[in-house]
Amino acid sequence: MNFAHSDNATSLIARMQSFMQEHVIPAEQTYAAQLRGGADWTQWQQPPVMEELKAKARAAGLWNLFLPEDGARLSNVDYAPLAEITGRSMIAPEVFNCNAPDTGNMEVLVKYGSEEQKQRWLKPLMAGEIRSAFCMTEPEVASSDATNMQASAILEGDEVVLNGRKWWSSGIGHPNCKVLIFMGLSDTSADKHQQHSMILVPLDTPGVKIERMLPVFHTLDEPYGHGEVSFTNVRLPLSSIIGGLGRGFEIAQGRLGPGRIHHCMRAIGAAEFALELLCKRAIQRVAFGKPLAKLGGNADIIANARMAIEQARLLTLKAAWMMDTVGVKGAMSEISQIKVIAPNVATQVIDAAMQMHGGAGLSDDFPLTALYAYARVLRIADGPDEVHRGLIAKLELKRQAKRLGISN
Q1: Which residues does the UniProt record annotate as the domain Acyl-CoA dehydrogenase/oxidase C-terminal (predicted)?
Q2: The CATH homologous superfamily of the domain defined by 132-244
Protein backbone atom coordinates (compact mmCIF):
# COMPACT_ATOMS: atom_id res chain seq x y z
CA MET A 1 0.00 0.00 0.00
CA ASN A 2 1.30 3.40 -1.00
CA PHE A 3 -0.23 6.40 0.74
CA ALA A 4 2.44 8.85 -0.40
CA HIS A 5 1.10 12.04 -1.93
CA SER A 6 1.67 12.59 -5.62
CA ASP A 7 3.44 15.79 -6.65
CA ASN A 8 0.09 17.21 -7.73
CA ALA A 9 -1.55 16.38 -4.41
CA THR A 10 1.41 17.77 -2.43
CA SER A 11 1.12 21.07 -4.28
CA LEU A 12 -2.66 21.21 -3.75
CA ILE A 13 -2.33 20.44 -0.03
CA ALA A 14 0.02 23.38 0.45
CA ARG A 15 -2.16 25.69 -1.63
CA MET A 16 -5.35 24.68 0.16
CA GLN A 17 -3.80 25.06 3.61
CA SER A 18 -2.61 28.53 2.65
CA PHE A 19 -6.02 29.45 1.22
CA MET A 20 -7.77 28.23 4.36
CA GLN A 21 -5.55 30.33 6.61
CA GLU A 22 -5.62 33.42 4.41
CA HIS A 23 -9.25 33.46 3.32
CA VAL A 24 -11.60 30.86 4.84
CA ILE A 25 -10.83 30.94 8.59
CA PRO A 26 -10.78 34.77 8.76
CA ALA A 27 -14.16 34.89 6.96
CA GLU A 28 -16.01 32.56 9.35
CA GLN A 29 -17.20 35.33 11.68
CA THR A 30 -18.33 37.48 8.75
CA TYR A 31 -20.21 34.52 7.31
CA ALA A 32 -21.96 33.88 10.63
CA ALA A 33 -22.93 37.54 10.98
CA GLN A 34 -24.31 37.72 7.44
CA LEU A 35 -26.28 34.52 7.97
CA ARG A 36 -28.45 36.03 10.69
CA GLY A 37 -30.66 37.88 8.21
CA GLY A 38 -33.71 35.61 8.30
CA ALA A 39 -35.48 34.24 11.36
CA ASP A 40 -37.63 31.95 9.18
CA TRP A 41 -36.15 29.44 6.76
CA THR A 42 -38.03 31.02 3.83
CA GLN A 43 -35.95 34.14 4.47
CA TRP A 44 -32.57 32.43 4.45
CA GLN A 45 -29.98 34.18 2.30
CA GLN A 46 -26.66 33.11 0.90
CA PRO A 47 -24.04 35.17 2.81
CA PRO A 48 -22.31 37.40 0.24
CA VAL A 49 -18.91 36.48 1.64
CA MET A 50 -19.47 32.88 0.52
CA GLU A 51 -19.79 33.91 -3.12
CA GLU A 52 -16.63 36.00 -2.73
CA LEU A 53 -14.75 33.02 -1.30
CA LYS A 54 -16.02 30.72 -4.04
CA ALA A 55 -14.81 33.10 -6.72
CA LYS A 56 -11.37 33.26 -5.08
CA ALA A 57 -11.18 29.45 -4.75
CA ARG A 58 -12.13 28.93 -8.38
CA ALA A 59 -9.58 31.51 -9.53
CA ALA A 60 -6.95 29.74 -7.42
CA GLY A 61 -7.67 26.40 -9.10
CA LEU A 62 -9.06 24.89 -5.86
CA TRP A 63 -12.40 23.93 -7.39
CA ASN A 64 -14.26 20.63 -7.90
CA LEU A 65 -11.20 18.76 -6.68
CA PHE A 66 -13.37 15.78 -5.67
CA LEU A 67 -14.33 15.10 -9.29
CA PRO A 68 -11.64 13.35 -11.35
CA GLU A 69 -13.52 14.01 -14.57
CA ASP A 70 -13.36 17.79 -14.17
CA GLY A 71 -11.14 18.75 -11.25
CA ALA A 72 -7.47 18.01 -10.72
CA ARG A 73 -7.88 14.35 -11.73
CA LEU A 74 -6.96 13.14 -8.27
CA SER A 75 -7.11 9.59 -7.00
CA ASN A 76 -9.06 8.89 -3.82
CA VAL A 77 -5.77 8.68 -1.91
CA ASP A 78 -4.73 12.07 -3.27
CA TYR A 79 -8.08 13.73 -2.52
CA ALA A 80 -8.31 12.34 1.03
CA PRO A 81 -5.90 14.84 2.68
CA LEU A 82 -7.66 17.71 0.91
CA ALA A 83 -10.98 16.57 2.36
CA GLU A 84 -9.32 16.42 5.79
CA ILE A 85 -8.24 20.05 5.47
CA THR A 86 -11.81 21.16 4.70
CA GLY A 87 -13.02 19.32 7.80
CA ARG A 88 -11.48 22.08 9.92
CA SER A 89 -14.19 24.57 8.90
CA MET A 90 -17.94 24.18 8.57
CA ILE A 91 -17.99 26.54 5.58
CA ALA A 92 -14.94 25.22 3.71
CA PRO A 93 -16.58 22.46 1.62
CA GLU A 94 -18.89 24.92 -0.14
CA VAL A 95 -16.03 27.36 -0.69
CA PHE A 96 -14.28 24.74 -2.84
CA ASN A 97 -17.55 23.44 -4.39
CA CYS A 98 -16.94 20.12 -2.63
CA ASN A 99 -19.94 20.05 -0.31
CA ALA A 100 -22.59 17.36 0.11
CA PRO A 101 -25.09 16.59 -1.28
CA ASP A 102 -23.89 18.43 -4.39
CA THR A 103 -20.77 16.28 -4.71
CA GLY A 104 -22.79 13.06 -4.81
CA ASN A 105 -25.39 14.55 -7.14
CA MET A 106 -22.68 15.77 -9.53
CA GLU A 107 -21.07 12.33 -9.53
CA VAL A 108 -24.44 10.78 -10.40
CA LEU A 109 -24.87 13.12 -13.35
CA VAL A 110 -21.32 12.59 -14.56
CA LYS A 111 -21.70 8.80 -14.50
CA TYR A 112 -25.36 8.32 -15.41
CA GLY A 113 -26.77 11.60 -16.70
CA SER A 114 -27.83 12.24 -20.28
CA GLU A 115 -26.26 15.09 -22.24
CA GLU A 116 -29.43 17.11 -21.74
CA GLN A 117 -29.31 16.52 -17.97
CA LYS A 118 -25.64 17.44 -17.84
CA GLN A 119 -26.17 20.69 -19.69
CA ARG A 120 -29.21 21.71 -17.66
CA TRP A 121 -28.06 20.67 -14.17
CA LEU A 122 -24.49 19.40 -14.02
CA LYS A 123 -22.94 22.43 -15.67
CA PRO A 124 -24.38 25.02 -13.24
CA LEU A 125 -23.69 22.72 -10.27
CA MET A 126 -20.06 22.40 -11.26
CA ALA A 127 -19.90 26.17 -11.69
CA GLY A 128 -21.28 26.65 -8.18
CA GLU A 129 -24.18 28.68 -9.56
CA ILE A 130 -26.90 26.48 -8.04
CA ARG A 131 -27.29 24.00 -5.18
CA SER A 132 -29.14 20.69 -5.04
CA ALA A 133 -30.76 18.17 -2.68
CA PHE A 134 -31.15 14.39 -2.49
CA CYS A 135 -34.51 12.89 -1.52
CA MET A 136 -34.26 9.26 -0.45
CA THR A 137 -35.01 8.85 3.27
CA GLU A 138 -38.68 8.56 4.29
CA PRO A 139 -40.32 9.34 7.66
CA GLU A 140 -42.74 6.40 7.75
CA VAL A 141 -40.29 3.54 7.23
CA ALA A 142 -36.89 2.42 8.52
CA SER A 143 -34.78 3.94 5.78
CA SER A 144 -31.63 2.10 6.82
CA ASP A 145 -33.23 -0.62 4.68
CA ALA A 146 -33.84 1.14 1.37
CA THR A 147 -36.06 -1.71 0.15
CA ASN A 148 -38.67 -0.37 2.60
CA MET A 149 -39.14 2.71 0.43
CA GLN A 150 -42.78 3.61 -0.28
CA ALA A 151 -42.55 6.71 -2.48
CA SER A 152 -43.29 5.96 -6.12
CA ALA A 153 -42.11 7.02 -9.56
CA ILE A 154 -44.63 5.50 -11.98
CA LEU A 155 -44.73 5.78 -15.76
CA GLU A 156 -47.92 7.25 -17.21
CA GLY A 157 -47.68 7.69 -20.96
CA ASP A 158 -44.86 10.10 -21.75
CA GLU A 159 -44.52 11.22 -18.14
CA VAL A 160 -43.21 9.88 -14.84
CA VAL A 161 -45.45 10.65 -11.85
CA LEU A 162 -43.99 11.01 -8.36
CA ASN A 163 -45.85 10.55 -5.09
CA GLY A 164 -44.59 10.19 -1.52
CA ARG A 165 -42.93 11.98 1.35
CA LYS A 166 -39.21 12.34 2.03
CA TRP A 167 -37.27 13.88 4.87
CA TRP A 168 -33.74 14.81 5.86
CA SER A 169 -33.40 16.23 2.36
CA SER A 170 -30.21 18.13 3.11
CA GLY A 171 -29.58 21.38 1.29
CA ILE A 172 -33.16 21.90 0.20
CA GLY A 173 -33.52 25.10 2.23
CA HIS A 174 -30.64 26.84 0.48
CA PRO A 175 -31.84 29.85 -1.52
CA ASN A 176 -29.79 28.60 -4.48
CA CYS A 177 -31.24 25.06 -4.41
CA LYS A 178 -32.86 24.53 -7.80
CA VAL A 179 -32.99 20.77 -8.34
CA LEU A 180 -33.31 17.57 -6.33
CA ILE A 181 -32.85 13.90 -7.04
CA PHE A 182 -35.86 11.80 -6.01
CA MET A 183 -35.69 8.02 -5.53
CA GLY A 184 -38.90 6.02 -5.72
CA LEU A 185 -40.47 2.68 -6.64
CA SER A 186 -41.21 2.12 -10.32
CA ASP A 187 -41.88 -1.63 -10.51
CA THR A 188 -42.66 -3.68 -7.40
CA SER A 189 -42.69 -6.91 -9.45
CA ALA A 190 -39.04 -6.63 -10.43
CA ASP A 191 -36.06 -7.91 -8.46
CA LYS A 192 -35.83 -5.94 -5.21
CA HIS A 193 -32.72 -4.12 -6.40
CA GLN A 194 -34.27 -3.21 -9.76
CA GLN A 195 -37.54 -1.72 -8.53
CA HIS A 196 -36.39 1.84 -7.92
CA SER A 197 -35.59 4.79 -10.13
CA MET A 198 -33.94 8.18 -9.67
CA ILE A 199 -35.59 11.28 -11.08
CA LEU A 200 -34.35 14.85 -11.51
CA VAL A 201 -36.95 17.24 -10.11
CA PRO A 202 -36.79 21.03 -10.48
CA LEU A 203 -37.67 22.40 -7.05
CA ASP A 204 -40.40 24.65 -8.46
CA THR A 205 -42.29 21.74 -10.08
CA PRO A 206 -46.03 21.74 -9.17
CA GLY A 207 -46.76 19.20 -6.43
CA VAL A 208 -43.39 19.59 -4.67
CA LYS A 209 -43.86 21.13 -1.23
CA ILE A 210 -41.35 21.69 1.56
CA GLU A 211 -43.48 20.88 4.60
CA ARG A 212 -40.94 21.91 7.22
CA MET A 213 -37.26 22.21 8.02
CA LEU A 214 -35.95 19.75 10.60
CA PRO A 215 -33.73 21.07 13.39
CA VAL A 216 -30.61 19.11 14.34
CA PHE A 217 -29.32 19.66 17.88
CA HIS A 218 -31.66 22.67 18.11
CA THR A 219 -30.32 24.35 14.97
CA LEU A 220 -31.79 24.48 11.48
CA ASP A 221 -28.33 24.35 9.85
CA GLU A 222 -29.04 27.42 7.76
CA PRO A 223 -28.68 28.23 4.93
CA TYR A 224 -28.75 24.57 3.83
CA GLY A 225 -31.35 22.97 6.07
CA HIS A 226 -32.82 19.48 6.16
CA GLY A 227 -36.33 19.40 4.79
CA GLU A 228 -39.37 17.19 4.97
CA VAL A 229 -40.81 17.28 1.46
CA SER A 230 -44.08 16.00 0.01
CA PHE A 231 -44.57 14.97 -3.61
CA THR A 232 -48.17 14.95 -4.81
CA ASN A 233 -48.79 13.86 -8.41
CA VAL A 234 -45.57 15.49 -9.53
CA ARG A 235 -45.45 15.09 -13.31
CA LEU A 236 -42.19 15.18 -15.22
CA PRO A 237 -41.05 14.23 -18.73
CA LEU A 238 -39.31 10.89 -19.23
CA SER A 239 -36.11 12.81 -19.90
CA SER A 240 -36.00 13.49 -16.13
CA ILE A 241 -35.25 9.82 -15.36
CA ILE A 242 -31.57 9.25 -14.60
CA GLY A 243 -30.02 6.33 -16.44
CA GLY A 244 -33.34 4.58 -17.08
CA LEU A 245 -36.03 2.93 -14.98
CA GLY A 246 -35.00 0.40 -12.34
CA ARG A 247 -31.43 1.66 -11.92
CA GLY A 248 -31.97 3.51 -8.66
CA PHE A 249 -30.05 1.07 -6.44
CA GLU A 250 -27.18 0.80 -8.90
CA ILE A 251 -26.91 4.58 -9.06
CA ALA A 252 -27.18 4.91 -5.27
CA GLN A 253 -24.21 2.59 -4.77
CA GLY A 254 -22.15 4.51 -7.32
CA ARG A 255 -23.10 7.76 -5.61
CA LEU A 256 -22.08 6.57 -2.16
CA GLY A 257 -18.59 5.32 -3.02
CA PRO A 258 -16.21 8.30 -3.11
CA GLY A 259 -18.45 10.32 -0.78
CA ARG A 260 -17.63 7.91 2.02
CA ILE A 261 -13.97 8.87 1.81
CA HIS A 262 -14.90 12.57 1.72
CA HIS A 263 -17.05 12.38 4.87
CA CYS A 264 -14.56 10.28 6.82
CA MET A 265 -11.59 12.47 6.06
CA ARG A 266 -13.56 15.61 6.91
CA ALA A 267 -14.50 13.99 10.22
CA ILE A 268 -10.82 13.25 10.85
CA GLY A 269 -10.01 16.86 10.01
CA ALA A 270 -12.60 17.99 12.55
CA ALA A 271 -11.06 15.66 15.14
CA GLU A 272 -7.57 16.97 14.39
CA PHE A 273 -8.74 20.56 14.81
CA ALA A 274 -10.52 19.67 18.06
CA LEU A 275 -7.33 18.06 19.40
CA GLU A 276 -5.39 21.22 18.59
CA LEU A 277 -7.93 23.28 20.53
CA LEU A 278 -7.88 20.75 23.38
CA CYS A 279 -4.09 20.90 23.68
CA LYS A 280 -3.98 24.69 23.52
CA ARG A 281 -6.54 24.88 26.33
CA ALA A 282 -4.75 22.21 28.37
CA ILE A 283 -1.45 24.07 28.13
CA GLN A 284 -2.75 27.59 28.78
CA ARG A 285 -5.51 26.99 31.33
CA VAL A 286 -4.44 26.67 34.97
CA ALA A 287 -6.44 25.05 37.76
CA PHE A 288 -5.30 24.09 41.25
CA GLY A 289 -1.92 25.62 40.49
CA LYS A 290 -1.18 23.51 37.43
CA PRO A 291 -1.92 23.55 33.69
CA LEU A 292 -4.87 21.29 32.86
CA ALA A 293 -2.51 19.08 30.84
CA LYS A 294 -0.83 18.01 34.11
CA LEU A 295 -4.02 17.33 36.06
CA GLY A 296 -5.72 13.98 36.53
CA GLY A 297 -5.81 11.74 33.48
CA ASN A 298 -5.67 14.53 30.92
CA ALA A 299 -2.34 13.33 29.54
CA ASP A 300 -3.95 9.96 28.80
CA ILE A 301 -6.89 11.70 27.12
CA ILE A 302 -4.51 13.59 24.83
CA ALA A 303 -2.47 10.48 24.03
CA ASN A 304 -5.55 8.37 23.33
CA ALA A 305 -6.95 11.05 21.02
CA ARG A 306 -3.67 11.21 19.09
CA MET A 307 -3.58 7.43 18.63
CA ALA A 308 -7.25 7.17 17.67
CA ILE A 309 -6.95 9.87 15.00
CA GLU A 310 -3.85 8.24 13.51
CA GLN A 311 -5.56 4.83 13.36
CA ALA A 312 -8.70 6.28 11.78
CA ARG A 313 -6.68 8.19 9.19
CA LEU A 314 -4.60 5.15 8.23
CA LEU A 315 -7.68 2.95 7.82
CA THR A 316 -9.40 5.61 5.73
CA LEU A 317 -6.34 5.93 3.51
CA LYS A 318 -6.29 2.15 3.13
CA ALA A 319 -9.93 2.22 2.04
CA ALA A 320 -9.15 5.02 -0.42
CA TRP A 321 -6.18 3.06 -1.78
CA MET A 322 -8.35 -0.04 -2.22
CA MET A 323 -11.01 1.97 -4.04
CA ASP A 324 -8.29 3.22 -6.39
CA THR A 325 -6.83 -0.26 -6.96
CA VAL A 326 -9.65 -2.82 -6.65
CA GLY A 327 -12.76 -0.63 -6.82
CA VAL A 328 -15.66 0.03 -4.48
CA LYS A 329 -16.85 -3.59 -4.47
CA GLY A 330 -13.46 -4.88 -3.38
CA ALA A 331 -13.27 -2.29 -0.62
CA MET A 332 -16.75 -2.78 0.82
CA SER A 333 -15.61 -3.99 4.24
CA GLU A 334 -13.01 -1.25 4.62
CA ILE A 335 -15.50 1.42 3.54
CA SER A 336 -18.00 0.24 6.14
CA GLN A 337 -15.25 0.10 8.76
CA ILE A 338 -14.28 3.73 8.26
CA LYS A 339 -17.92 4.80 8.29
CA VAL A 340 -18.12 3.44 11.83
CA ILE A 341 -14.68 4.43 13.07
CA ALA A 342 -14.11 7.95 11.71
CA PRO A 343 -17.29 9.59 13.08
CA ASN A 344 -16.94 7.76 16.40
CA VAL A 345 -13.33 8.88 16.81
CA ALA A 346 -14.33 12.43 15.89
CA THR A 347 -17.17 12.55 18.43
CA GLN A 348 -14.90 11.15 21.16
CA VAL A 349 -12.11 13.64 20.51
CA ILE A 350 -14.45 16.61 20.13
CA ASP A 351 -16.28 15.60 23.29
CA ALA A 352 -12.95 15.51 25.16
CA ALA A 353 -12.12 18.96 23.82
CA MET A 354 -15.48 20.28 24.98
CA GLN A 355 -14.83 18.87 28.44
CA MET A 356 -11.37 20.46 28.56
CA HIS A 357 -12.91 23.83 27.73
CA GLY A 358 -15.50 23.56 30.50
CA GLY A 359 -18.50 25.84 30.06
CA ALA A 360 -16.81 27.66 27.19
CA GLY A 361 -16.78 24.43 25.21
CA LEU A 362 -20.57 24.38 25.21
CA SER A 363 -20.84 27.94 23.87
CA ASP A 364 -20.46 29.43 20.42
CA ASP A 365 -17.18 31.06 21.47
CA PHE A 366 -15.53 27.90 20.15
CA PRO A 367 -16.58 25.75 17.14
CA LEU A 368 -16.72 22.54 19.17
CA THR A 369 -20.50 22.13 19.47
CA ALA A 370 -20.93 22.57 15.72
CA LEU A 371 -18.14 20.08 15.01
CA TYR A 372 -19.65 17.61 17.48
CA ALA A 373 -23.09 17.84 15.90
CA TYR A 374 -21.57 17.30 12.45
CA ALA A 375 -19.64 14.20 13.55
CA ARG A 376 -22.56 12.75 15.49
CA VAL A 377 -24.94 13.20 12.58
CA LEU A 378 -22.60 11.18 10.33
CA ARG A 379 -23.25 8.07 12.43
CA ILE A 380 -26.77 8.07 11.01
CA ALA A 381 -26.65 10.19 7.85
CA ASP A 382 -24.23 7.91 6.00
CA GLY A 383 -25.98 4.79 7.27
CA PRO A 384 -26.30 3.77 10.91
CA ASP A 385 -23.31 2.14 12.59
CA GLU A 386 -25.32 -1.05 13.06
CA VAL A 387 -25.86 -1.51 9.31
CA HIS A 388 -22.17 -1.03 8.58
CA ARG A 389 -21.21 -3.45 11.35
CA GLY A 390 -23.66 -5.98 9.95
CA LEU A 391 -22.01 -5.83 6.53
CA ILE A 392 -18.52 -6.03 8.03
CA ALA A 393 -19.50 -9.15 9.97
CA LYS A 394 -21.17 -10.71 6.92
CA LEU A 395 -18.10 -10.18 4.75
CA GLU A 396 -15.76 -11.40 7.50
CA LEU A 397 -17.76 -14.60 8.08
CA LYS A 398 -17.80 -15.23 4.34
CA ARG A 399 -14.02 -14.79 4.18
CA GLN A 400 -13.41 -17.03 7.18
CA ALA A 401 -15.79 -19.72 5.95
CA LYS A 402 -14.00 -19.77 2.60
CA ARG A 403 -10.65 -20.07 4.37
CA LEU A 404 -11.95 -23.01 6.43
CA GLY A 405 -13.72 -24.64 3.51
CA ILE A 406 -17.07 -24.39 5.31
CA SER A 407 -20.34 -23.64 3.56
CA ASN A 408 -21.72 -20.35 4.90
Answers
A1: 246-394
A2: Butyryl-CoA Dehydrogenase, subunit A, domain 2 (2.40.110.10)
